[in-house]
């Protein structure tokens, strides 16, 4: 009888990295006395209250995640940073495990975890992936709400789309459905920018602060080009003028990066493409001067441009 019970329990252990809740073990018929005996003997070990490792030794990351979500209850799901880790959205896992539980449920303390009470916990849960986690679109939007600034929030959006994990349309559906979001309108507008190929806060500063604010024609975003047998993507490309505007948020470049930039610019020049490079300071403190420079080059390269000042304090000389 006991052998048959353990056989019935094995699929659960295989799915859950060898971790099981007391409730699950009892549900397949394992006597409470046998569970307690295994715990006393050290063959099983408690990871969370009512959640056990059915092996000796230290559980791996999957085991730790299963223990936390099982402790949270049947409606609990891994969320925020932990869901991001599982999706490959972040390369820096956090020690604390993030678990979302429905607001209406009575929360249980989870050792080593942050508990998020969520009105959307059930519908945001991925229907198939294990350990249970929020869908990638909800994970991204949840992370925007933990961000210290909108630029940081926008970076999560860009990263998720840039890594091919989701689309602007799928994120937009979540933002539309969750009206009580910080930066709700800003996220809606930013998703339109991402759909057009804007892939970083700096690129967004260029589009809004330099290009649109001064009436410059829209560039093609993330334009694919092949030079010297290598495929590259230009941040902004004014095709009719063969003018590229590349953006980099790094304050300083190591020598090898400067060489790579020069090599790429030289390759572009060999096929007639001129390259301008701007950083965050350029696109914020010198936005008007950058706009004037781009406008002059577009005009010099035969593109009719009708730029205008960005406001009463604009310093651009067109």
Please describe the structure with a list of short key phrases separated by commas or semicolons:
318 residues, alpha+beta, Endonuclease, Chain A, 3 domains, four-stranded mixed beta sheet, 14 helices
Tell me what portion of residues adopts beta-strand conformation: 15-25%
Uncertain segments of ≥5 residues (pLDDT<50)? none
- Overall number of strands: 10
Distance between the termini: 88 Å
Structural class label = alpha+beta
The shape, in one word, is elongated
Helical amount among residues, as a percent range? Answer: 40-55%
Order of helices and strands: HEHHEEHEHEEHHHHHHEEEHEHH
Mean pLDDT rating: 93
The profile of the biggest β sheet is: 4 strands, mixed
- Please compute the radius of gyration using only Cα atoms: 27 Å
Number of domains: 3
Number of helices: 14
Strand order of the largest sheet: 7-8-9-10
Describe the structure.
The radius of gyration is 27 Å and the shape is elongated. The longest helix is centred in the C-terminal third of the chain and has 15 residues, at 255-269. Strand 2 and strand 3 form a beta hairpin. Helix 7 (136-146) packs antiparallel against helix 8 and helix 9 (168-177) runs antiparallel to helix 10. It has three domains: 2-56; 65-195, no CATH class; 201-300, Endonuclease, Chain A (3-Layer(aba) Sandwich), CATH 3.40.960. The mean pLDDT is 93. The protein starts with a helix and ends in an 18-residue tail after the last helix. It has 318 residues and is of the alpha+beta class. 46% of the residues lie in helices and 16% in strands.
């Amino acid at each position: 009888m006991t052998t048959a019970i353990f056989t019935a329990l094995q699929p659960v252990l295989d799915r859950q990295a060898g971790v099981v809740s007391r409730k699950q073990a009892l549900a397949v018929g394992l006597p409470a006395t046998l569970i307690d005996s295994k715990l006393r003997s050290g063959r099983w070990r408690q990871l969370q209250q009512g959640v056990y490792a059915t092996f000796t030794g230290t559980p791996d990351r999957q085991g730790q995640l299963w223990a936390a979500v099982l402790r949270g209850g049947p409606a609990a799901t891994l969320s925020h940073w932990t869901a991001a880790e599982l999706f490959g959205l972040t390369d820096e896992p956090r020690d604390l495990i993030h678990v979302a539980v429905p607001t209406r449920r009575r929360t249980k303390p989870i050792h080593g975890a942050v508990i998020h009470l969520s009105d959307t916990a059930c519908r945001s849960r991925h229907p198939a992936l294990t350990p249970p986690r929020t869908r990638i679109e909800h994970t991204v939007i949840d992370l925007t709400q933990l961000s210290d600034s909108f630029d940081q929030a926008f970076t999560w959006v860009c990263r998720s789309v840039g890594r091919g994990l989701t689309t602007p349309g799928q994120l937009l559906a979540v933002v539309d459905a969750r009206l009580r979001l910080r930066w709700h309108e800003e996220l809606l507008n930013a998703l339109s920018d991402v759909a057009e190929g804007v892939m970083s806060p700096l690129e967004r500063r260029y589009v809004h602060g330099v290009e649109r604010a001064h009436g410059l024609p829209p560039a093609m975003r993330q334009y694919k080009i092949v030079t010297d047998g290598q495929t590259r993507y230009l941040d902004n490309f004014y095709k009719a003028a063969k003018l590229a505007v590349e953006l980099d948020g790094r304050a300083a470049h190591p020598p090898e990066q400067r060489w790579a930039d020069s090599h790429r610019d030289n390759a572009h020049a060999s096929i007639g493409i001129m390259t301008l490079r701007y950083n965050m300071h350029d696109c914020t403190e010198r936005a008007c001067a950058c706009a004037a420079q781009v406008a002059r080059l577009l005009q010099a390269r035969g593109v009719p441009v009708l730029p205008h000042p960005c406001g009463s304090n604009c310093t651009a000389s067109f």
